[in-house]
């Protein structure tokens, strides 16, 4: 198993793993993902996809985006999303490892906090985040869905 920053070559496996996330990716193709990767992600030093990879298969992942900020003495904010581990590999600490990479990336970028969202029904995931040091009580997220998926 290799822990690494994911790249374009990992897209097919990454998109396949995302099918286990929440089933909302529909018929999203690797070609569609590649267009976004090339135009928005590749070369952007503020966005990183981290993954645990085994035999060229992404088995755990999250992404982290650094958001510049004009409060907290200009310290940035990190936003983590799409945290998922392949169901066959859960319970092995892989999610923790990719999250630790994201947190390290946030520290390297002078972030004063890391934010993530999790479905309100995902109690097991909430405990996982608390065990990593996240506080699920101090803030409340509000979401406005602009698309129905």
Describe it.
The radius of gyration is 15 Å and the shape is globular. 30% of the residues lie in helices and 26% in strands. The N and C termini lie far apart (33 Å). The protein is an alpha+beta fold and 149 residues long. A 5-stranded mixed beta sheet has the order 1-2-3-4-5.
- Largest beta sheet: what is the strand line-up? 1-2-3-4-5
Cα end-to-end separation = 33 Å
Q: What would you report as the Rg, rounded to the nearest angstrom? A: 15 Å
Quickly count the helices: 4
How does the overall form come out from the CA principal axes?
globular
Q: SS-based structural class?
A: alpha+beta
- Specify the helix fraction band: 25-40%
Assembly type of the chains comes to single chain
Written as H for each helix and E for each strand, in order along the chain, the element string is: EHHEEEHEH
Largest sheet: 5 strands, mixed
β-sheet strand percentage? 25-35%
Poorly predicted regions? none
Rounded average pLDDT? 94
Tell me the number of strands: 5
């Amino acid at each position: 198993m290799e822990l690494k920053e994911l790249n374009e070559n990992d897209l097919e496996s990454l998109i396949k793993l995302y099918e286990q996330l929440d089933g909302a990716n529909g018929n999203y193709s690797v070609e569609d993902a590649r267009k976004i990767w090339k135009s928005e992600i590749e070369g952007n030093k503020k966005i990183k996809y981290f993954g645990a990879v085994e035999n060229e298969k992404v088995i755990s992942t999250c992404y982290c985006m650094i958001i510049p900020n004009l409060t907290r003495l200009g310290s940035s904010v990190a936003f983590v999303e799409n945290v998922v581990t392949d169901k066959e590999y859960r319970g092995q600490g892989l999610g923790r490892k990719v999250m630790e990479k994201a947190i390290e990336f946030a520290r390297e970028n002078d972030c004063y906090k890391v934010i993530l969202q999790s479905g309100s029904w995902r109690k097991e995931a909430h405990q996982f985040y608390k065990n990593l040091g996240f506080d699920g009580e101090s803030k409340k997220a509000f979401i406005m869905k602009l698309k129905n998926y």
